[in-house]
Prior knowledge:
- This protein has 7 helices and 2 strands, in the order ββααααααα.
- By secondary structure, it is mostly helical.
- It has a single domain, classed as Cytochrome c-like domain (Cytochrome Bc1 Complex, Chain D, domain 2, Orthogonal Bundle).
- A hairpin with a 2-residue loop joins β1 and β2.
Amino acid sequence: SMVIGGVSAVGLTAILWASIGVSQNASPLASVIPYADESSVRLGEAVYNENCASCHGDELQGEPNWQTRKDTGRLPAPPHDETGHTWHHRDELLIAITKFGLAKLTNNPDYQTDMPIYDGVLEDQEILAALAYIKSKWPAEIQLRHDAMNEPSK
């Protein structure tokens, strides 16, 4: 399994599932991000607009030239629409990046990013709701591909 900064992806998944209250014995879900739940998506839109839109854009478009480092050496905020990489990552990684930040996930305390850490700022439900809002904006085909990616490996 993939190792992220000394923590295996499986170990990270167990920690995250516990932290967001998802039982590992629960029936496997294709996605823990409640993108089909209207109230979650509405909450997520408010959370996104207040906490994410200033960098990731009102239309999820990200910052211009998002793959080219700024003068500061940091990467611009990527788009969260279907043109970006967000949907290429499993739920637990999206949750972990939002909650704990890339420095912790890569086990590189010196990693420089403009992305805030939302642990202690947003509740887990708010993080899931913001991701639900983002995912609700993807084309159905992308949503289904992302759901398939989250299926537990057989």
